[in-house]
Amino acid sequence: MSSVAESPLVDVLLVTADPALRELVSRSRTAGVELVCVTGAELRERSGLRARQVWVDLDTTPEPLLPVGSGRVYFYTDARALPEGLPAGLLVRKPCAAALFATLWAEVVGDGLGQRGSGGRESALPAWLADYHELGLEELCRRIARGLPARLGYRVGSVYLHDGEARVLTLAATSHGRPIERIIRLDDAQRFPAAAVASTGQVLRTEHAWDEWLARGIVRPGDFPYADGACLLAPLSTGGEMWGVVCLCERTHVPVSEDDELLRQVFAFLARCLRHARLYEAARHEARIDSLTGLYNQRWMTESLDREIRRAERYASPLALLMVDLDGLKAINDQRGHAAGAAALRHAAKRFLRVLRQSDGAARTGGDEFCIVLPETAATGAEQVARRLLESFREAAPELELCGGQLTASIGVAEWERGMDAEQLRDAADRAMYRAKQAGGNQVAIAAGAS
């Protein structure tokens, strides 16, 4: 057996006895990246293994066997069973969504999960940074906005997400008790230091924030956001990309570290956490999109409907569902082929998006079937939406001539009633849709009992 010094450095070492996890990791592996899979017992026999990243399945590895590795990922089922004293790493709850691994492998190819200081050694970062190993984007931003200010000597904080294409910063989370800017344009750097920080990539830390305004030739506004003059604004960038900006203000008596290098490493660590979360969010979003129409898919519909029902129960708010079946799609497919049918489906998706509100959600749930979730909408309002959809189809009939056929819709409307689950609501809308279909199509039917 080779000695430790002679052992090659692999890209990723996966320690697990779970065949399903091993299959997911192996199947999603990026081409050209070296992966070695071992069980805990096999790892003990091959103690010289070294890896750039070590992925450990804590469910099947009783002892936290941790070979040398700059980045660590821990897979687990029960948070209560996590071993104490676990070195910092990314915690991933099982079962794992396939979309997760696109994010993990992207990090292997990119700058990795580990935080390295000069000389390639791991830096001694504060243990509390482990609180920010969170893949949920919303939860991560909430933790940063609420937890980071006190760690660095401030009272309140905000997190903005960077959109380079739209050239804006969008507020993701804040602990301010007053309204603050929700969208900051990067072109407005004179008015908003956060925009300047995002544009320059430079940290702004000062006890005299108004001087920054004067330096930019801006008169101090009446609603000056930094009442005591103290603020710390930092870009969260890694891998050559800007992912967000964190803004802290209102100094407390908690001492602020004057170690600029440590602060730089803290913000670099948070930037990687934000990058992981945003990439994972994007992967999850893509996994819930129908590739043909650009609408959501069945998976999204199931999750969304469950979520909206919980919200309706909590706030006693109305909720309606539309089931839509395209009447003429089969004829288009039969007469003009599947390319024409695909064009007709995309056409229908555009009509949905033209009519629906931003808070509504449309999903393709079958070949020619769609579901539309209408939050804060009773049956009467949902019926109006359905009739606007039919009118939109009629108005766009000339566009559909390119597909070589006519396209109308049969729409069923159902309103959620207390005690209904998602399946019952869908069944009610589905039965109404079939009544519209059996009556000749191109019409709306309301579920029995809907007010």
Task: Describe the secondary structure blueprint for this structure.
Blueprint: E1 9-15, H1 19-28, E2 35-38, H2 40-45, E3 50-57, E4 71-76, E5 90-93, H3 98-109, H4 137-152, E6 154-163, E7 168-174, E8 183-185, H5 193-200, E9 204-206, H6 209-215, E10 231-238, E11 241-251, H7 260-286, H8 298-315, E12 319-326, H9 329-336, H10 338-355, E13 361-364, E14 369-375, H11 379-395, H12 397-400, E15 409-415, H13 422-438, E16 443-446
Parallel strand pairs: 1-2, 1-3, 3-4, 4-5, 15-16
Antiparallel strand pairs: 6-7, 6-11, 7-8, 9-10, 10-11, 12-14, 12-15, 13-14
Sum this structure up briefly:
37% of the residues lie in helices and 22% in strands. The protein has helices at 19-28, 40-45, 98-109, 137-152, 193-200, 209-215, 260-286, 298-315, 329-336, 338-355, 379-395, 397-400, 422-438; strands spanning 9-15, 35-38, 50-57, 71-76, 90-93, 154-163, 168-174, 183-185, 204-206, 231-238, 241-251, 319-326, 361-364, 369-375, 409-415, 443-446. A hairpin with an 8-residue loop joins β7 (168-174) and β8.
